[in-house]
Structure of Cytochrome bo(3) ubiquinol oxidase subunit 3:
Amino acid sequence: MSNTTTLPSAGSARFYLRDEHHVENGTLLGFWLYLMSDCLIFACLFAVHGVVGRSYAAGPTGADLFDLPLVALNTSMLLLSSITYGFAMLEMQKNKVRATLAWLAVTGLFGLAFISLELYEFAHLLHEGAGPQRSAFLSSFFTLVGTHGLHVTFGIIWLVTLMVQVSRHGLVPENRRRLMCLSMFWHFLDVVWIGVFTFVYLMGVLP
């Protein structure tokens, strides 16, 4: 009796992958790499502001323009949004869909409040004639703060998209992974904003 095994002819072999081909923690690792590249972008913007932050071109200074109580209120909005996102993640661990969505909604509202106050500040500066073309100081200010604001805006869009996904499909592993990535992104923006508040606003009002 022959021990040979007949192999399928060329083109007839079929391979089926029953499980999802997704490396464990691969998405989180990739997202960490993205955040590191974003750190480089903000590091460059901070460096530029450090160089030209005192180049007023005989125009208004930070002490003349910045409304620190308004900026402090805006800062509190973003920090509170970070806390409420943490509550959302705790509810996700408990597999409570409605509670997770509720805390995500509160986070989004705080994010919208932050963006609204920032746009109000920009509009006020433009009305005072302190636009980005006025001096190198204002150019770097609008670029740095505006870049952070764009990140928060995209984060809110991402947040709303995930809320739709969770409401439709529940807290499946894919949605949990996406919520974890957004959590890292949101807390990263908080850390960057603390740097902006300290380096741009607080140091900007010093003589």
